[in-house]
Design brief:
- This protein is an alpha+beta fold and about 120 residues long.
- The protein has a single domain, classed as 2,3-Dihydroxybiphenyl 1,2-Dioxygenase, domain 1 (Roll), CATH 3.10.180.10.
- The chain has two helices and seven strands; from the N terminus they run H-E-E-E-H-E-E-E-E.
- Strand 6 and strand 7 form a beta hairpin.
- The two termini are about 20 Å apart.
- The model has no long low-confidence stretch (mean pLDDT about 90).
């Protein structure tokens, strides 16, 4: 193949309170977005990467956001009233999970691995 055929990625977060989670992404995480119609926001993400991990049973997909300083981000999120787990070092990176207003949890980590 002489050229890349993938031009981007689209991730979906399913939520029991989509409006509140959209507001959290916009206000607390500061993601910019566009209105795709009728208030349906689509947010831009920074450059992304994809990895394939072995699985014992069944395929699944996960989404994690990345940060350069997870401790500073956790402090910022807590000041904004968000609930985060204590950052934990897993070798590949330091991970926290933030609880979204709709109840879902979103992993955010500071990678230790080489970035593409």
């Amino acid at each position: 193949m002489s050229h890349a055929v993938i031009s981007g990625a689209h991730a979906i977060l399913f939520s029991t309170d989509a409006a509140a989670d959209r507001e959290f992404l916009r206000v607390v995480l500061g993601l910019r977005g566009v209105d795709a119609g009728d208030g349906w926001l689509i947010f831009a993400l920074p450059p992304a990467e994809i990895a394939v991990h072995p699985a014992e049973a069944g395929a699944r997909h996960e989404l994690y956001l990345m940060t350069d300083d997870v401790a500073a981000l956790v402090s910022q999120l807590r000041r904004a009233g968000a609930t985060c787990t204590e950052p934990a070092d897993h070798g590949w990176g330091v991970l926290t999970e933030v609880t979204l207003p709709g109840g879902g949890r979103l992993g955010i980590y500071e990678p230790h691995h080489t970035r593409p």
